[in-house]
Every structure is written in C-alpha cells, then in structure tokens.
Amino acid sequence: MTYGRTEQERREAAGTSTMQDGAAYEMTSGEVANAREFVRDFLARAQTLYGESMSQRAVDGAQLVVSELATNVCKYAPGPCLLDLETDGTALGITMWDSGSVLPSASPADPTRVGRHGLELVLMVCQSFEIRREPVGKRVRVRLSLQDSPSGDPAGQTTW
Predict the structure, then answer these.
(1) Gap between the Cα atoms of 129 and 146, Å rounded
(2) DSSP string, 45-103
(3) HSE of 61 in the Cβ direction (CA atoms, 13 Å)?
(4) Contact assessment for residue 91 and residue 146, using Cβ atoms and an 8 Å cutoff
(5) pTM to 2 decimals?
(6) Which is higher by pLDDT, 77 or 49?
(7) Alpha-carbon dihedral sign for residues 126, 99, 134, 104
(8) d(CA 160, CA 150)
(9) What's the distance, Cα to Cα, between the start and end of the chain in Å?
C-alpha cells in the first residue's frame, strides 16, 4: 500500500529533483512480492515520467535488495514494515524500517551453508549500507547505482 503524494508533489515540496515514494506493509511472505513490484513500478515511473535512465542490472539489483530485506523482515521481525525509495537519477536509495530490535549481520563465507546468504547478496550489489537502531525497531538504508560504467560494471562499485 503506498502512502503520500504524487511524485511531482514530492519533488516540489522537497525543492529537489529527487523522486520519492513509500509503502507500508504488514510483512508476511506474500508481501515480499508486493515490495518487489513496488520497487519495479517506482523505477519504471522514474524512467517514464522523468526520463531517468537506468541499467537493467540496476532494476534487477534493486528488486533483489528489496526482496532480501523484506524476506529478513518476514523471518526475523514479522509485522509492520515501511519501505521508502528515492532516486536522483544516478542512484537509488532504499530504506526499510521494521519493528525488530535485532540488527542483522552477514555470516562468514561458507559455500556449504544452505541459506542465510541474503545480506551477503545485498552487500555485493550496493554502494553503501547502513543499519540504525531506532527507538522502536531498526532502519536499514542502502544505496545502489542506477548506471553502469562504459565497461558494464556498476558505476561507483564499492569493494566489500
């Protein structure tokens, strides 16, 4: 479920050229697909309404990141969840809040481990990653590039 104003109203209110939108979920496994669809639709609107270009890698990566973050909410902090997206045309900011108090951490690399690779994947595709404890719950913020370099690699790729 989305909340707030239209993209144009958000841009005018903020006095910037960024596009923002947000959604609230009662996070269950069925909502993970809705969160993926929300980010896909957001990026499509950014391309259509504002001519912001992005690589297919970025669109796929954004959906992967949202899917992994939402799955973690389902597994470890089921309940209310807020998803906020923001783009300036060069990068996508993804912020997810949930009511769980336990901060996620990546497990050590283990090719024999089944599952629990989600945070590792998120770290591989994002240029920045931040977790902040909130008075209630936690907030995870990531940023990923929407453009590729001439070699086809993500622009500004951070080595983890």
Answers:
(1) 16
(2) HHHHHH-----HHHHHHHHHHHHHHHHHHHHHS-EEEEEEEEE-SSEEEEEEEES--SP
(3) 26
(4) yes
(5) 0.80
(6) 77
(7) negative
(8) 22
(9) 34
Question: In this model, does residue 21 exceed pLDDT 90?
Answer: yes
**Burial group, residue 81, by CB count within 10 angstroms (0-12, 13-18, 19+):** buried
Specify the DSSP class assigned to residue 17: S
- With a CB cutoff of 8 Å and minimum separation 6, the contacts of 148 are 55, 57, 58, 154, 155
Alpha-carbon dihedral angle through residues 67, 130, 58, 55, given to the nearest 10 degrees: 160
Q: How far apart are the C-alpha atoms of 84 and 93, rounded to whole Å? A: 8
Tokens 């996508």, residue located: 92
